Amino acid sequence: MAKIPLVLREEPGQVFLPVMVKRYRIELDEHDWGQLLDGLECRAESWRRNAEYLRTEEMPEGEFFVIEEHSDEEEAEEIAARYKEIIKNIRSQMEVQP
Fold first, then answer.
1. Which end of the chain is more exposed for a tag (fewer CB within 10 A), N or C?
2. Residue 81's CB: how many other CB atoms inside 10 A?
């Protein structure tokens, strides 16, 4: 049983509940995995740019991007980091496949 927080940031008085995490085994060909990883990388980059925008109040790298629904730089960084963790997990599992 893994502990999953109800929210991304710890705040005083916040409650964490242990929950059962269901695991999935999904089979996709390498092209579909590439598409999936590409989509996740786009989401991570979007959240990273949102954090940068909140930090500097300037468009990152002079480009336009989708502003995600949030108002906190730290939250955006945490969400971007979570996407990166998912990507890393998928890539490491792909590497051990025959």
1. C
2. 15
CA 8, CA 14: separation in Å to the nearest integer? 11
Report the residue count for the chain: 98
Q: Has residue 87 got a pLDDT over 90?
A: yes
Domain that holds residue 82: 2-10+27-95
CA dist., res. 28 & res. 37, Å (int)? 12
pTM, rounded to two decimals: 0.70
Q: Residue 54 has which token pair?
A: 């909140």
A 10 A CB-CB count for 20 gives 8
Total tally of structural domains belonging to the chain: 1
Q: Are 44 and 88 in contact (CB under 8 A)?
A: no
- From residue 34, alpha-carbon distances to 23, 43, 44, 87, 90 in Å are 21, 14, 15, 11, 11
